[in-house]
Amino acid sequence: MKNDHLAIRAGAARRVGVVDRRLFGGFVEHLGRHIYDGIYEPTHPTADTEGWRTDVIELVKELGVDTIRYPGGNFVSAFQWEDSVGPVEERPRRLDLAWHSTETNEVGLHEFHSWLEKVGSDLMLAVNLGTRGTKEALELLEYANVPEGTALSEQRRRNGRDAPFEVGMWCLGNEMDGPWQIGHRSAEDYGKLAARTARAMRQLDDRIQLVACGSSSSQMPTFGTWERTVLEHTAGLVDFISCHAYYEERDGDLGSFLASAVDMDHFIETVVAIADEVKARLGSDRTVNISFDEWNVWYNTRFENVDKIEGIDNWPTAPRLLEDVYSVADAVVFGSLLISLLKHADRVTSASLAQLVNVIAPIMTEPGGPAWRQTTFFPFAITSRLARGSAHVLSLDAPTYDTRRHGEVPLVDAVATHDESDGTVAVFLVNRSTAVSVQVAVDVGEFGVSDVHESHVVHDEDVYAKNTLHEPDRVVPRRSDAAVADGTLHVTLPPVSWTAVALR
Ligand code: AHR
To answer: Does the CB atom of residue 215 touch ligand 1 within 6 A?
Structure first.
């Protein structure tokens, strides 16, 4: 079957909207070896004077990450931000209940901001609405954004930072719909708290953008009603509602796994419909967009069944947690999730890949040793670099296949971007077939491009091939056979592959 070919056409691009750079955001949580022994390792041979691993900084820059969400995640729902500022030697060691670990607070707000300056990313802060509330959110906002002359802004200055951090995006808690969340509550209760907090935060700084918690996945029993209720309370006060989604191959069902982006499409379209319906019904003049601020492939069942830490006397510092090793198939699904985000670029104007280093991450590190790229690194880095300008949905005449989890799904998905400033075009494609190569002819005549500038394909005969400490370059993208003739891009998509082509 592997040598079978299928030919399909793609044409009539529909312009969706401008791609917001924040679509290529990341997420750094105090979790496992993300911070400690990940981005921060003062004894590492590449560490700079502040203790940051410069080999990791270089990889994060290569990845091309925009705004970075911090400090959680589940971690934030019991976090006391005051613990993480001031003299490091005076900071308390705390129990992190979310991940059953010890948080030393050696890296806190100031240090993390300094790291962000080195990687060239902006800060997106989440406030604790689990164990805390409006008062503490306001205090953090004052500490971060007020220039000077008040108790907390002066405290920040005494702590070594004269200029405000100018944090523009704020998350009102994390996954408050999830029973696992510390301080989990009903949509009604969370909606009221989020509205109160949003109103107060805007009173302090009306330049900020606010993200209300949406659903932790489209499979949550409250999915839909949660968004409706929360938005009814927060209409006119928030700019974004969040979506979170993680996918994994279950029970050897590769076909369904490869079609995970179908769920993401449905998730986004459902939330947009609810947000617009609430906006119209309540006569709000603020459109609520989506902040897809956690998305990835995550073998969560492995964590739940094998890796979970327990015991009253067992609170390790920086344990190895959620260190998934990604395969080619994972990278193909990952690339298709990026296609889904781009196809909805008009309404998904912020997204955060969860996460960045060691923890369900595109970048892995070994203490005292190397850092390397996982398979998922490549679709992110390439898409972040090439997807410029506006996004365009292509009409595809792709055949469908049947899946256990998503029903009939198209075999191929694709999206294009067009940068009007320099005329370049990028086309991103995924072939979900485990058996056949697909020859695609994409009509790119309307963009006036005639050359393939670069092309990349992530594919391997072994769909479970991975990059590891001992074989860090086992999987790398290769050039595809992409070529343009008479306004048509011709490219072959091997089975289980993700492809990017840049044209000019
Ligand atoms: O990214 C890992 C965890 O997934 C986050 O802490 C939480 O928000 C989500 O459930």
So the answer is: no
Identify the pLDDT of residue 7.
72
What's the gap in Å between 63 CA and the centre of ligand 1? Answer: 21
Low-confidence ranges of the chain (pLDDT < 50): 1-3
Q: Which residues pair with 490 in a beta bridge?
A: 441, 483
* Catalytic residue list contains 175: yes
The residue whose CA is least distant from atom 1 of ligand 1 is 354
Ligand 1: nearest atom to the Cα of 74: 6
Mapping DSSP to helix (H, G, I), strand (E, B) and coil, where does residue 136 land? helix
Report CA(221)–ligand 1 centroid distance (Å): 18
Annotated catalytic residue within 29, 103, 139, 175: 175
Q: What's the confidence (pLDDT) of residue 424?
A: 95
Contact by Cβ (8 Å): 203, 186: no
Classify domain 20-386 by CATH architecture: Alpha-Beta Barrel (3.20)
Q: Catalytic residue, from 82, 103, 139, 294: name it.
A: 294
- Please give the number of the atom of ligand 1 that sits closest to the Cα of 178: 10
For the chain, the structural domain boundaries read: 5-13+391-503, 20-386
CA gap 372, 370 in Å, rounded? 7
**Same CATH fold assignment for domains 5-13+391-503 and 20-386:** no
68 close to 112: Cβ distance less than 8 angstroms: no
106: annotated active-site residue: no
Say which residue the tokens 């932790």 belong to: 216
> Please, are residues 57 and 16 in contact by the beta-carbon 8 Å criterion?
no
Q: Any idea which fold 5-13+391-503 has?
A: Immunoglobulin-like (2.60.40)
Q: What pLDDT was estimated at residue 408?
A: 97
Could you tell me if the CB of 74 is within 6 A of ligand 1? yes
pLDDT at site 5 = 67
pLDDT value at position 11?
A: 67
